[in-house]
Amino acid sequence: MTPGLNEPHASRPAADEACLEPVRRGIDPLVFEQSRPGHRGLDLPPAGVPEAPLPRLLPGVALRAQPPRLPELSEPEVVRHYTRLSHLNHSVDLGIYPLGSCTMKHNPKLNDELAALPGFAELHPYQEEDEVQGMLRLMWELEQALCEITGMLRVSLQPSAGAHGELVGILMIRAFHRRNGDAQRDTILVPDSAHGTNLASATLGGYKIVELPSSDRGLIDVTRLRQSLNERTAGLMLTNPNTLGLFEEDICRITSLVHQAGGLVYYDGANLNAILGRCRPGDMGLDVVHLNLHKTFSTPHGGGGPGAGPVAVGPALEPFLPLPLVQQRAGAFRLDDDRPLSIGRVKGFYGNIAVAVRAYAYILRMGGEGLRQASGDAVLNANYLRTRLHHLYHVPFDRTCMHEFVAAALKQKARGVLARDIAKRVLDFGMHAPTVYFPLIVPEALMIEPTESESLESLDAFVEVMRRVDAESIEAPEVVREAPHSTPVRRPDETRAARRPVLRWEPDIA
């Protein structure tokens, strides 16, 4: 009889026993644990030239005494290993991903194909401008489209992420005030519901932060704003709709007050997906806007990149845009480096071009009406979820929202189940969890953003999962508190994982 998995054969080598141990634990073995001496994915032919001593080839370079302990696997083993790894992560291609303020919507595969075309993917950043006219034209036309969408004057495609775009905007605001002799303006106003990157970007740009409390309607308190404005105010950072999913009803009054005080207004474009084709930041009086191409314009993101955070500006900040910008002159496209007031370069070469190509393709394919429908569907989906869940989960601002809404697990907390427990339990049903504990002004927050990509069936499935978790918080709270039950990693020590993450495999020297 063939021995079972838990009945090792007497003649099985000890190394095989070690390999089986991760399987018994219910997890996939590490690639190092699968390694066996002599397993190869390929055989290299002899070099055909005499071997030279490495110190002579690399003078002054410290060399290892021993070769690295790399795993030894055959090609099928390598393919299976990485295929298994790809199945461990949830993605928007596997199921609903209602991560608030992150706009995790479907990424059309056509855009990936277009970005991979040799004419884009195989360009070299040092090629002459005459050889890359197609790429420069795409950058120029994408800038024109983003100007029309935002109502701004010009756009830099350089920043490589939203937070990078924030910093660029702050640096331009600082350059503007110094140019005008207002270097004493050293304060940026930030609402208490703002994204954390707003605070970090303003601080990194050399500014002090003054926090603006929200009103009882979850909006910027205009009275407190007026009281906070003075000769030291450099600007205000906001997003509209805000992180509660609410549209700032007094936006034009807010921007007017800041301008009257001599400041500028920065627009965090993380939530632009809610207003595409319906209203424009420039028409609200905003001076500088960053856009997340990898959110609003449907490019894959997550895991640290790739991303793109173009910055759009109005007339006041146009001279300070980073270099280079694309200009159209005499029927050709050129890079404009002659801008004496520019804050300089913020990224090498053209920026994250593959992301720009995807965004360009998305905008052309959708058109104005398509973008307008996308924002309308995103708002519709969020309000559908809100109205189906608000009697189970407390919604502190329970009125028509935009693309997302914030619920609070206060009823569940009274039963001993916290927001993070609910989020972990949702993972057991093959769905990603909502954002938890943000914004900070809502205790036990669950921020939910379905995006426009989800069908009625997937929204209903998410509602049923949230209903079941609520019922479990009454009937079997320990099931929720101990979740997740079906993921490869269950409940790590979150503090240690954040402060002392284990990011590499350490061999057992003994």
- The proportion of residues forming helix, as a percent range, comes to 25-40%
Q: β content, as a range?
A: 5-15%
Largest beta sheet: strand ordering: 1-7-6-5-4-2-3
How many extended strands? Answer: 12
H-E string: HHHHHHHEHEHEHEHEEHEEEHEHHEEHHH
Task: Describe the model.
The chain has 510 residues and is an alpha/beta fold. It has three domains: 28-45 and 54-88, no CATH class; 110-365, Aspartate Aminotransferase, domain 2 (3-Layer(aba) Sandwich), CATH 3.40.640.10; 369-499, Aspartate Aminotransferase, domain 1. It contains 18 helices and twelve strands. It has helices at 14-24, 31-34, 54-57, 75-88, 109-115, 118-121, 133-150, 162-179, 196-204, 222-228, 251-260, 293-296, 353-389, 410-414, 419-427, 456-475, 477-481, 494-499, and strands at 154-156, 187-191, 208-212, 233-238, 264-269, 288-291, 311-313, 325-329, 332-336, 405-408, 435-436, 445-448. The strands form three sheets. The protein has a seven-stranded mixed beta sheet with strand order 1-7-6-5-4-2-3, with helices on both faces. Helix 7 (133-150) packs parallel to helix 13 and helix 8 crosses helix 9 (196-204). Residues 1-15 have low confidence and may be disordered.
Summary tags:
single chain; 510 residues; alpha/beta; Aspartate Aminotransferase, domain 2; Aspartate Aminotransferase, domain 1; 3 domains; 7-stranded mixed beta sheet; 3-stranded antiparallel beta sheet; 38% helix
